[in-house]
Design a protein that fits this description.
By secondary structure, this protein is an alpha+beta fold. It is built from 2 helices and 5 strands; from the N terminus they run H-E-E-E-H-E-E. It has a 5-stranded antiparallel sheet with strand order 1-2-3-5-4, with helices on one face. The protein starts with a helix and ends in a 9-residue tail after the last strand. The chain binds adenosine monophosphate and zinc ion (ZN).
């Protein structure tokens, strides 16, 4: 999608600090980190949010969850980490391209809402 920030990051027309890429998945460092390690993992196919996951496109989501532990290991997050996806306005989703935050590198607050 031409006007999507994360599609432009995947295309390389907007720079990013890439940590991982394969045929279907891209991962890069969050520009405003909320923890010592804060990485966003996204599908290369444009999906708006978790709400857009279907039986047809869910294999890419499964693949993202195979990639996440590889990234966590490469980042040295052996003490644990959090995976978050904000979906829609009430969750505070600001970029409408499905993304999973990997947060770690310190003990994280337990607050969920
Ligand atoms: P969310 O609020 O869950 O939609 O998450 C969007 C995330 O994208 C936020 O944590 C932002 O800091 C991050 N973000 C926005 N623009 C960029 C960018 N150009 N490069 C890296 N991360 C970004
Ligand atoms: Zn997009």
């Amino acid at each position: 999608m031409a006007d999507c920030l994360f599609c432009n990051i995947i295309a390389g027309s907007i720079p990013s600090n890439k940590v991982y890429e394969d045929e279907t998945v891209f991962a890069f460092r969050d520009i405003a980190p909320q923890a010592p390690t804060h990485i966003l993992v996204i599908p290369k196919v444009h999906l708006d949010s978790v709400d857009a996951v279907t039986p047809e496109n869910s294999p890419v989501v499964a693949h993202i969850f195979e990639v996440i532990p590889q990234i966590a290991k490469a980042e040295g997050l052996e003490n644990g980490y959090r995976v978050v996806s904000n979906c829609g306005a009430d969750a505070g989703q600001t970029v409408r391209h499905l993304h999973f935050h990997i947060l770690g590198g310190k003990p994280l607050a337990l607050e969920m809402a």
